[in-house]
Amino acid sequence: MELANYIEHTNLKPDATGKDMEKLVLEAANYNFFGVCVNPHYVKLAKELVQKSEKDIKVVCVVNFPLGANQIDTTLAQIKEAIIEGADEIDTVINIGAIKEGNYEKVTNELVAQKRAVHNQILKVILETDLLTPDEIKKACLCCVTAKVDFVKTSTGFVKNGVGATLENVKLMYDTVNKYGLKVKASGGIKSKLMAQDLINAGASRLGTSSGVQLIN
Fold first, then answer.
1. What residues are annotated to the active site?
2. Among 26, 48, 64, 102, which residue carries the largest CB count within 10 Å?
């Protein structure tokens, strides 16, 4: 298992600076990480830094982040701008409130619109598993299947006292979506190499973490 190939090196801190982006991309290049995951403000800079590195590093941008509470038109505008500025993949937060209300038709329709907006790029959907029951996680996954997105993802890492990715939730998500061709991204609280390997064994095809260098060393 080449762990670096799974890692999306992440910095989504509100106080992140351009210097932090330079460090993020430099580390991704040095360790051959799959990609870097950044906020919309830094997509253009990250893309420029990746191109200068001459490494095949994907630029991943989060939208509707971290609450999943945008109006859909706002999220679609974010997606369009991020792709214009160089994002290779989009990680969106699902409409968590609509899931809690059981309004799965609304959830699915919003995901369909976002999948259409990314065109040929990869769309990953953050479920925010810390806020959902196992039944809600499964139903949210099925909305993603219907919308024909590419990945389901565990967490934003922004839930107070949240645990982030767990083996149980990754396995539940994998078992629900794998037969339909969707993949799983584990994110949130991945701090050790052993945990990273266990999450991959549970079904994760990608790992979102700000501790990528720590996991490799």
1. 91, 153, 185
2. 64
